[in-house]
Structures are given as C-alpha cells and as structure tokens.
Amino acid sequence: MASRLESKSIREVWQEIEKVMNEKPEPIEGMNVVYQYEITGDDTGTFQLFLSDGTARVVEGTEGTPDCTLKLSDKNFKKMIVGKLNGTAAFMTGKLKVQGSMGLALKLEGILNEYNLSETA
C-alpha cells in the first residue's frame, strides 16, 4: 500500500518532515548541520534542511552552505522518506549521489527512520 506522503508534492513532503521533526526534537538535539537535497524528475527543486539544536527548518533554494548534498529523483526521494528505499542501497546503485560528508548522509537516514514517516498523513 502506498504511503499518503507518496501522493503529495515534494514541497508538501518537506513541510511534513519539518513539522514532525519539530514535534519530536529528541533525534536531532545537539546537531548543527545543513543538508541540501537536489531533487530531479517531474517535481523538482533544491531544498535545504537546517538542523540546529533540536530545531528543524526547511527552505526551498540555497540559503546556507550545505555540509552534505544529496541528489536523487523525486520518486526515489519519496521512497527513501517512507522507508521503501534504503539510502545505502540507493547510493550503491547510483540512485542517490552524495557530496560532502558520507557520515552525515548515513546519520540523516538513521534520523529519518526514527520519525517513521511512512505512517504520516
């Protein structure tokens, strides 16, 4: 069964990610990092996820200097967010490209898994 997030636009998915992270800040407490997603496909865009001491903020465009940049298609982005695509497998098969810290990319995958976004409306 498809997650309700998979039918939403990329912008709506980012709004949801920001909302759930700020409702449950524990997994991102103590972090101070900027992730940049460059999303291609039918629903494209560049988004930055700022994690700073338990607060998440998403902006469209490039406001800050990213510590880690992830490039993938809109479909693969949604699959990764809802847990249907493993980040490491996506990287190994070329579906995900990472620039910057690979460690930060792996950490983000672990954090997103804690939020169980597949259950989100």
TrEMBL record:
<dbReference type="InterPro" id="IPR003033">
    <property type="entry name" value="SCP2_sterol-bd_dom"/>
</dbReference>
<protein>
    <submittedName>
        <fullName>Sterol-binding protein</fullName>
    </submittedName>
</protein>
<dbReference type="Pfam" id="PF02036">
    <property type="entry name" value="SCP2"/>
</dbReference>
<dbReference type="InterPro" id="IPR036527">
    <property type="entry name" value="SCP2_sterol-bd_dom_sf"/>
</dbReference>
<feature type="domain" description="SCP2">
    <location>
        <begin position="17"/>
        <end position="112"/>
    </location>
</feature>
<dbReference type="GO" id="GO:0005829">
    <property type="term" value="C:cytosol"/>
</dbReference>
